[in-house]
Amino acid sequence: MQRNVWISQNGQSLQGWYVKAKPARQAPLLLYFGGNAEEVTGFLSYKDELPGIGMVTFNYRGYGGSDGQPGEQALFDDALRIYDHFGNLPEVDTRQIIVMGRSLGTGVAVYLAAQRPVHRLILTSPYDSIQSLAQAQYPYVPINWLLKHPFDSLVRAPRIKTPVLAFIGGNDRIIPASHAETLLQAWGGEMHKVLIPQADHNTLGNSQNYWQQIRDFLKVDNNGSL
């Protein structure tokens, strides 16, 4: 069953959605962090792809029904709040919290994996840092001085031991494959990479066998056991 949920702090609220795992028991939980301005409720349409696993996703600050202004530290703080809140629910198996991020959300997911115990990490269109992406597109602009939100996943990668599955689009012009490769080469734990040559930034998640490869990575059976 999908239900609307809210997390509030300091007078500001975040709007999210929670799909509780069936059957009702301690079950794995997947936390999803979407791309920039992504309508994250669409992700919940895939809930049947991972049977027996609960799902949680929230609108970033300033989007949908969520209050506030988005920013690197704000998104990081919210990710910790979401993890801590749902990790304390009696129906959640805290040993099997999965974190998934897409595009901008991969930076949030990597940060969370560096701060909290995460069983598995799934990244779609990951990057080394927003700063690096910007510098590659605008090489004559002093990005180091201008960029306020670097989302530097590369600096965190070596100390993260969580196994990661990364999907890379060979035709991704927004996050070129080289930036994902740089991040993965620095990863401190087990790393699985799926390069889909013809996929671009917006079609990568619709690629053939996308969800099957996620199920294989998570070792999900028909009952949702990991």
Automatic annotation (TrEMBL):
Domain Serine aminopeptidase S33: 51-133
InterPro entries: AB_hydrolase_fold, Hydrolase_4
Keywords: Hydrolase
Keyword Ubl conjugation annotated: no
GO molecular function, one term: hydrolase activity
Residue stretches spanning the membrane: none
Pfam families: Hydrolase_4
Official protein name in the record: Alpha/beta hydrolase family protein
Organism field: Candidatus Venteria ishoeyi
